[in-house]
Amino acid sequence: MTRKPTHMDRALAQARAAAERGEVPVGAVIVARDGAVVAEAGNRTRELNDPTAHAEVLAIRAACDALGQERLVDHDLYVTLEPCPMCAGAISFARIRRLYYGASDPKSGGVAQGARVYAHPQCHHVPEVYDGLAAADSEDLLKTFFASKRGEA
Ligand SMILES: [Zn+2]
């Protein structure tokens, strides 16, 4: 029996597409209150020569552009990996309602570890956070990607 693809499945598809472009495989999807996908993106730091071109930032920019507004109130963001501090900040600035993420990121994560952006009183908007969604799939993608990179060296 096939199950209906979830928003995290779409984020994983974006992560896979990123890996095929030689980018770190992370994907993000932004969903409106009615469940419609407003934007989706994968990492493009290499392609754009832009260290800020993380999947979450690109998806937020695309969603705001599509909606003609600077905030994404009542929107949810799905991302395959725990956001870094920069993206956690951008998610807060965008007023994202819920953040769903897959694998935790002990090296660069900024939500549950490291900077813990949302734990600071300076953070004016804290999204509801749900972690561990399809975490194993996301981890496998990252492991395969970095193993193949090491193979190239
Ligand atoms: Zn990031």
List keywords for this structure.
5 helices; 5 strands; binds zinc ion; Cytidine Deaminase, domain 2; alpha/beta; five-stranded mixed β-sheet; single chain; 153 residues; 38% helix
Structure explained in plain terms:
- The chain has 153 residues and is of the alpha/beta class.
- It has a single domain, classed as Cytidine Deaminase, domain 2.
- The chain has five helices and five strands, in the order H-E-E-H-H-E-H-E-E-H.
- A five-stranded mixed sheet has the order 2-1-3-4-5.
- The longest helix has 18 residues.
- The N and C termini lie far apart (42 Å).
- The structure holds zinc ion (ZN).
- Zinc ion (ZN) binds next to helix 4.
